[in-house]
Amino acid sequence: MTLVEVGGPVAGLGAGAAYLRARHPAAYWLAVGMPASAVRLLGSYGSVMDSCGLTVQPSRLRALAVRATTRREVRPVPPRRGMLRPTSTGLRIRLRLAPGQEPADIAASAERLRHAWGVHGVYVEPVKPGVVELRLVGFDVLRRVRMPRKAGGGFLRVPVALREDATAFVRDFRAIPHELVLGATLSGKSMYLRHLITGLAAQPVALAGIDCKRGVELAPFAPRLSALATDPGQAAELLPALVQEMEDRYDLIRARQGIAPTTPDEEITSDVWGLPESERPVPIVLFVDEVAELFLVASRKDEERRDEMVTQLIRLAQLGRAAGIYLEVCGQRFGAELGKGATMLRAQLSGRVCHRVNDEPSAKMALGDIAPEAVGAACTIAPERPGLAVVGDTSGGWSRIRTPYLSLADAAARCERTADLVPDLAALRLFRPAVSAVRPASLTKPRSATA
Questions:
Q1: pLDDT tens for residues 254-276?
Q2: Nearest to residue 205, comparing CAs of 320, 325, 313?
Q3: Which of 127, 151, 268, 425 gives 20 to 30 Å between its CA and that of 82?
Q4: Structure confidence by residue, pLDDT tens digits, 170-191
Q5: Residue 123 near residue 134, CB atoms below 8 Å
Q6: What pTM was computed for the model?
């Protein structure tokens, strides 16, 4: 009877904890994982730091004070620890670095700290000189994506995915104007594109698209698009119109720079964001899906058209930022073998997102020139995790992200609800897609990409 009375509840608690850990990792972390990790961290902080080589010899004044008051041996001191702050996904703690230390020293020991404190991951973020923040993540947040409530969105800022450190990945067009997104079939590239389009649909932005797969990717969003080209022939007409719009905007900026003696210095500008709001043209975001279709030619006659389109894309990538024109270039494969201008275009796309790809050279083309360490991480993405990607930028930093699931029907419905926000741009009127045949409610709902 004693065995039943004691063993029954213990077995029930163990089974319940195992169920929570498998099915509801966030609840398991709050109930079991966080208290255990907090106790482990607070109880072993000094010894763990010493084992990781993150302690330094104390100052002479401190050593004299210890000897005079306690008469015990002076031991190396770890970084000064701040208050432990729990979150829904982990723990956060700030450390004041000891003299002679740098954030890279803490980051180099992140894997050892993870094992010592029994958490899923440890990430180091510099706060200010001499202070870093340790972000301890209690479970795999990319297994079932839940975006944080405060994701940091705003004008031309779209939260599109969750980072592996449980923070939101925000696509900021003002900071990174152009981006290259690569991914094989069923890798989650289309899901990433849906979040971008729906995030921008509610903003005063003009959206244009080039989808050479006869529009199957971008046509459902036609109510919110200012222009759509569904084959290389239409793209060859749309790109010159965008280049002409860019040149007209440069003429507007140049006219503003015909400065009168009484013009204040703060009104002198070199891009559209320095113009008065009443004169500022609306930003344009151009989505190019399957960019390789613009490079491929079937005959010698098409080569001249291809070269012209590539030249115009490169011009938009080089000069579009100041005119408020941004590029989002997507494809399954992007490399020098596409032809003249491919690598030059890639060099202008400072943002890089690499989903699962079919070969290592594709990952190298996406990330090898800005973050070589990220190439290996991109090549290990499993097919069972669609939406998982490696994101990098020209600063050399990179991280893993995963896009939450958004059905095509829901994305199309959001674009239909915001159709009244489509700006009237004279240069794009001829390319405005017809929306009468689009029926977002009738679209079938596909299987969850991040389940």
A1: 887 775 666 665 565 788 998 88
A2: 325
A3: 151
A4: 999 999 999 999 999 889 999 9
A5: yes
A6: 0.85
